[in-house]
Design a protein that fits this description.
Isopropylmalate Dehydrogenase; alpha/beta; 361 residues; ten-stranded mixed sheet; two-stranded antiparallel sheet
Length: 361
């Protein structure tokens, strides 16, 4: 019998409704060629669902999604919906409920793409940001007091636990051991002396358990400068929820476009499904124009297949992406003139050439 993977497909809003179906086409082609089966079900959750029903997803959604092996997600958000709600009522709810505590955001320079960093090459731009995904600054633990009064007060309190820091640190060090054996802890503990001081302390303890992995601490202001001046310094970056959110967009920028970036919200223990999504937003301003860059979604699909143990299929999609960028088959955000559909068709044609079928087992 063929191997089978159950995928929950959530296109979301805006360009998600264009690039997620495109990515699923690639996934189905490599699945057929590599001898496994994708069983997908689409869920129309997101901001449009909120407009239509008053919620981003129904009460039963998490229970339904838990039955799947992975989630392929596009983006969430529309101009008509308060932009504070998508994270609280959808993205963070899924990440937290499914203990997707490791946010995996790779950064690399694809062949044929010129980085805004003039002389940097693919050899120098190749690292992974591991963002702690369930705790830290984004737990939304705060309140407003008398907001309209002269004495108005607003608070947000970060939460860092030993268990939360240890688990994401172990994930980062294990990953580094498979790459170039370097972990950089990006922190700001010289000013956030309690929370990030504790973050540093626990990470240093974990680092001691991985003597073959070089460990370094770097403050986020210095790291931001080095993203631009010396990206070659980095292999695996381990950082907090908010710092990781910001740095991963900077990482997308030095790749040439946020449209290129893929990511995974990982539950390493596999007790819950992991969720894979591009790093950009729903971009409603270009939705429906056929110019959305699908490469970040393609990369997210590749990460999903790799997580599911289908490394050959994941590699096939990455080879197809490299073919697109090498041949200058790119969208306007990268200076190209190709449409989303044209890029998808070119990727599918290339997959037909580079993927050889395996016998069913």
């Amino acid at each position: 019998m063929k191997r089978e993977h159950k995928i929950a497909v959530i296109p979301g809003d805006g360009i998600g409704r264009e690039i997620v179906p495109a990515a699923i086409q690639l996934v189905k082609v490599v699945a057929e060629k590599r001898g496994f089966e994708i069983v997908e079900q689409t869920f129309n959750y997101g901001a449009q669902h909120f407009i239509d029903t008053g919620s981003f997803m129904p009460d039963s959604a998490l229970e339904e999604l838990q039955q799947f092996d992975a989630i392929l997600f596009g983006a969430v958000g529309l101009p008509e919906v308060d932009d504070r709600l998508p994270f609280r009522d959808f993205t963070n709810k899924v990440r937290t409920a499914f203990k997707q505590y490791a946010n995996y955001r790779p950064v690399r320079l694809f062949p044929g793409i010129r980085s805004p960093l003039r002389e940097k090459t693919a050899r120098e731009i190749d690292f992974v940001i591991i963002r702690e995904n369930n705790e830290g600054e984004f737990v939304q633990n705060g309140r407003l007091l008398y907001p309209d009064e002269p004495e108005g007060l607003a608070t947000d309190t970060s939460v860092f636990t030993r268990a939360g820091i240890e688990r994401v640190a172990h994930y980062a060090f294990r990953l580094a051991a498979k790459r170039r054996s370097k972990v950089t802890n990006v922190t700001k503990s010289n000013t956030l002396i309690h929370t990030l001081g504790y973050w540093d302390r626990v990470i240093e303890e974990v680092a001691g358990q991985y003597p073959a992995v070089a460990y370094k601490k770097m403050y986020v202001d210095a790291a931001s400068a080095n993203f631009v001046l010396h990206p070659e310094y980095f292999d695996v970056i381990l950082t907090t929820n908010m710092i990781g959110d910001i740095l991963s967009d900077l990482g997308g920028a030095i790749m040439g476009s946020l449209g290129l970036g893929g990511s995974g919200n990982i539950n390493p223990e596999r007790t819950f499904p992991s969720m894979f999504e591009p790093i950009h937003g729903s971009a409603p301003d270009i939705a429906g124009k056929g110019i959305a860059n699908p490469i970040g979604q393609f990369w997210s699909a590749s990460l999903m297949l790799d997580h599911l143990g289908e490394q050959d299929a994941a590699g096939d999609i990455m080879h197809a992406i490299e073919y697109l960028t090498t041949k200058d088959i790119i969208t306007p955000d990268l200076g190209g003139s190709h449409s989303t559909e044209q890029i998808t068709d070119a990727a599918l044609r290339q997959l037909g050439k580079i993927v050889q079928p395996e016998p069913n087992t």
